[in-house]
Amino acid sequence: MNTTKVCDNTYRFSVNAEPNSLLFESLWPIPEGVSMNSYIVKGDKTAIIDGVCGWDGVPESLLDQLKKAEIALEDIDYVVINHMEPDHSEWLKDFAAMRSDFKIYTHQKSKILLERLLDVTQEIHAVKTGDTLDLGQGHVLSFVEIPNVHWPETIATFDTKTKTLFSCDAFGSFKSVPDDLFTDSMSSDEIADYENETLRYYANIIGAFSAPVKSAVKKLVPLGDISTIAPGHGLIWRENTDHIVDLYSKYAAYSNGPAEKAVTIIWASMYGNTGKAVPEAVKALEEEGVQVFVHKVPESHISYIIRDVWQSSGVIIAGPTYEYKLFPGLVSALDELGKKKAKNRKAFHFGSYGWKSGSQAEIDEINERLKMKWEFLEPVTFIGSPSEDDISVIRSRCAELAHSVIDWIAETEQAS
Ligand SMILES: Cc1cc2nc3c(=O)[nH]c(=O)nc-3n(C[C@H](O)[C@H](O)[C@H](O)COP(=O)(O)O)c2cc1C
Ligand SMILES: [Fe+2]
Ligand SMILES: [Fe+2]
Fold first, then answer.
1. Which of 317, 326, 353, 380 best tests ligand 1's pocket when mutated (most atoms within 8 Å of CB)?
2. Residue 415 lies in a domain
3. Is the pTM of this model over 0.90?
4. What is the total count of domains within the chain?
5. What is the spatial distance between Cα 98 and Cα 115, in angstroms, rounded to a whole number?
6. Which residue in 53, 263, 274, 316 has the most C-beta neighbors within 10 A?
7. Mean pLDDT over each residue of the chain, to the nearest integer
8. For residue range 341-365, what is the model confidence (pLDDT) as tens digits?
């Protein structure tokens, strides 16, 4: 855990989860780690905003870091809980064992969780949008409800003196962040290095809540002159705060499409029959100038499939019929994509079968049930190995798919 000065009287103390040391939410791989950021704001009174995960031996490291920031444990008057998810709040149990005399500022909906998850007995002040907490020396913390980014009780906290927005899960990212790293000291290439993991974090963790993200951006931007965005995970944005707000707005828009001029192929093949047509599909798409992401299931982790479908305006589901239905790995990928609200994609299915194809029927059922609104071209299914004719039809369908993606993006750009 490390303490770093963010701006006047404001410190970050963070924990980086080591690469591959855990699955985030017990689901999502973190090959480049993830940071858990927490902040201290010091006026006449001192507040901690957010917490780090409980698994880092918080008492010892917190004490150590408070010492470096020249803050005594007994000087901490307030704890602001922006979000009850344990990656931000679990440390409170250990903290309360060290210092019990503090007040909690949080959303009304956090109360029950604070009591049931963390056995909290401290005084709880329920806050709503517009409520403030004056720390003295000009540091007035103003609270903004941003429900469902990521849980219903989530709030963001804005220091009206330093213009720092403590945004919790909003504007966050996977990938560890070195102690002293702030975006104003990074080159655009270094910032771009985080983008893949920001997109994957967004699509995996926040994507299903893209409508609330849009509402949150509308509420937060008018706070005015935000000079620093200090999220609960990932980079701390100084000066170029617009960049992360723009990225999040773009990712939120991807939910309903169009996204990028890209097509993701998700494919499976037990005996290589469907697989024979996949490189042909890739070639046909690339010839039309669209970017292609390819994932074979079950080998590709769903985390990366979701990331790439999120940024693609088109999707191809390629796989065989299995027990009169679609191949199971593709069913679960589609189901997850529907639940993550990757909606309105241009789509196409092809695949092999032995005696009676049932793959497109199941795709249609999932598309309908999860209200995905994916628009499918006529499927190409073939017995056993694809013939030259089958390959040729698949290639022309892929070209058609590429054109519909390109036209859709152009129409949307014209309309805006
Ligand atoms: C467990 C299993 C179940 C299958 N169920 C069906 C089926 O319900 N209908 C059908 O037409 N073919 C079925 N098949 C046959 C496959 O769809 C066929 O072998 C196809 O060519 C496999 O394509 P692939 O090599 O791309 O996996 C099944 C095959 C397996 C192994
Ligand atoms: Fe969360
Ligand atoms: Fe989080």
1. 353
2. no
3. yes
4. 2
5. 18
6. 263
7. 94
8. 999 999 999 999 999 999 999 999 9
